[in-house]
Design goal:
alpha/beta, Rossmann fold, Dihydrodipicolinate Reductase, domain 2
């Protein structure tokens, strides 16, 4: 498969390595900072492309998606921080009958973690003695807080635990309400990503955690996602991809 990489920072380099390992060809690297072969996405750059993988900043994401869709190039979007534009992106993809797969975290291990968290939240739905909270740690260069992964975890909890209604990502100078799910974020060092869910009662504490050792898992998931997307039409989330490749 001939692939264009958009965003040629640390993740872009990891994606390139995995693409080559799996027998694909990188035909162009687009990076706004000037670290690739071009600074912006254009239809001309995609003329020979059979797929795009983007891990970049959210600025201009909607225009990039429009170009991918209008040129009928399947795209995997690992960029985070554009949640409010999701419905518009979906409309663009559907209008052009193209294919796009988006997700806040493409790591297969992280998605197994999401499933464990969902089940844990459902298990304590009728056990009110347990409270639940989320903590995440990332490297000092990360620009969004909470991370897209942390917000995905929080959404999984809210979907499965009736007593939690609101995600609260801020530092609190008051007592937290029972219906709030606190999501704490720490930034520093070179940590690829640590996410921890804590279930706590007067009697004991249960912790479920996922620690990324490097960015390779995210890159592998994105490349496998592009392989999965080939030949499809539609606006897909990483959940669709994971459900299809993991046993039920």
């Amino acid at each position: 498969m001939k692939v264009v990489i958009v965003g040629y920072g640390s993740m872009g380099h990891e994606v390139e390595s995995v693409l080559l390992q799996r027998g694909h060809k990188v035909i162009c690297r687009v990076d706004p900072a000037g670290n690739g072969d071009a600074k912006t996405v254009s239809p001309d750059l995609l003329r020979e492309a059979e797929g795009v993988i983007e891990f970049a900043l959210p600025d201009g994401i909607l225009e990039n998606i429009r170009i991918y869709s209008e040129t009928s190039v399947p795209a995997v979007i690992g960029t985070t921080g554009w949640d409010k534009l999701r419905s518009q992106a979906g409309d663009i993809v559907k209008q052009n009958k193209s294919a796009l797969l988006w997700g806040n975290n493409f790591s297969l291990g992280a998605n197994l973690f999401f499933d464990l968290v969902s089940r844990a939240a459902a298990l304590i739905n009728s056990i009110e003695e347990y409270d639940i909270m989320v903590n995440e740690y990332h490297h000092k260069r990360k620009k969004d807080s909470p991370s897209g992964t942390a917000l995905t975890i929080a959404e999984k909890i809210l979907q499965n635990l009736d007593r939690k209604k609101v995600i609260q990502p801020e530092t609190l100078n008051r007592t937290i309400r029972d219906d709030e799910l606190h999501v704490g974020s720490v930034r520093g060092g070179s940590i690829p990503g640590i996410h921890r869910v804590t279930l706590d009662s007067d009697a004991d504490t249960i912790e479920i955690s996922h620690t990324a050792r490097n960015r390779g898992g995210f890159a592998l998931g994105a490349v496998r996602g592009l392989e999965w997307l080939s030949g499809k039409t539609g606006f897909f989330s990483v959940d669709d991809f994971i459900r299809d490749i993991l046993p039920s």
